[in-house]
């Protein structure tokens, strides 16, 4: 065992204010010092690197060490971010708002941050209780703050947590992008290099926001789509997936005039263990099974589900061909429904635009063109989508939707839920359903279908190896379809989205995109097709999914 590594771990332990992670680390150090191989490897994993601060902030597993989420790392991040904000503000006192969700240690990390921000001379405002991420994003703009921090790991596994950063002012409450990320990271590293976090100034002179902030979010979100006449007999089911969405959503539903849903009681209240799901993401198989069962019992018209911090929305509709009797709509299907809604409202507005990530359905471009709106394709992430010029609506296929850009410049699963309620109510009033709206969508803008192949890995080097293989020996066909054009977005033209992304356009007009996930240990492949009918498009996607799996097996 390296004496330097042991010394580093002991120095970390001495400054750790958390008894649980101190004890955890002490046990590992003792075993590693005694030569136990698993403990030596564990210590190397914990301290061989540190969680990198980037445009997604920080996110990782809870535990002791620089490569884990814990109070030492969060203190370094808060002090570094405070230094960045003071440097940016000059002589002015910057304001920062802090929010937190229901995950393990979220409140502790948020309170530590507020104390450190106040100790650094900032005006720090802590939200009154655990709340959805969109409330924090709203509060940054509503309060005219310079920045916001949300302690959340969104839909990550139960033992993860994270630190999500927003900037106000000219950034309008959007998530950070370069170069702010590297500037903040440099400040954080300086704090870490200086040593002991116990010497950082702290103050309890931070403010706690009043309920008026939450009430303002409720009013603004209810106004997204007030209930039309005849909405009172809508039958719908809601699940919060053990997250923080329900309390806020239920108040907004009442304020907007919709009937309250029938709920999945086992998943309604915040629960950091996420005891009924193996992975708290509505995209994952099995995550919505309890909602499907509830909907079958009550014969619901549709299901809405938020992820644990309520920045994403899932929608499901009855489907007799499914074993469960229900089908979760893809993020692209919901995005096109909401995009068409926004396009109809924005038509004729000079400069108004629709935006989506480059891996989301190209159908949004067709919607924008149909209504004479601008269209912007961005890199993945709402930090980019929210910055699209003239944005009236934005989405990404991973169940993220920005429907209320004047108040929230981030994905918001609650305002999206209200918009879907409005669409469902309008369809219901004329004897229709969300399924029929999807059919109308295809008839108007073209029939698009999408699919995704995801490969989760334990060893991140596998992803790099596969991407290198695809660049070195580019595929010439997927199944029976030839590749008409291959693009490596690492070398994208000036002004175009650039990143670690490979895009293939096939000779029938279909599209395949390969990229590493930005938040999970996954390689993701996105498939899009257009055909004369919904059935034809779906068949093309199924064939391409099989071809992609075959290719990945050969390359990994």
Automatic annotation (TrEMBL):
Q: Which cofactor does it need?
A: Mg(2+)
State any single GO MF term. Answer: phosphopentomutase activity
Give the PROSITE patterns listed for this entry: PGM_PMM
Using the record's annotation, list all stretches that form the Alpha-D-phosphohexomutase C-terminal domain. Answer: 484-535
Q: Which GO terms describe its biological process?
A: carbohydrate metabolic process; purine ribonucleoside salvage
What Enzyme Commission number does this protein have? 5.4.2.8
Where would you find the membrane-spanning parts of this chain?
none
Per its UniProt entry, what is the enzyme's top EC class, as one word?
Answer: isomerase
Domain Alpha-D-phosphohexomutase alpha/beta/alpha, by residue range, is: 51-191, 217-316, 331-441
Residue spans making up a coiled coil are none
Q: What are the entry keywords? A: Isomerase, Magnesium, Metal-binding, Phosphoprotein
The family database entries (PANTHER family) matched by this protein are listed as: PHOSPHOGLUCOMUTASE 2B-RELATED, PHOSPHOMANNOMUTASE 45A
Q: Which family does it belong to?
A: Belongs to the phosphohexose mutase family.
Name listed for the protein in its UniProt record: Putative phosphomannomutase
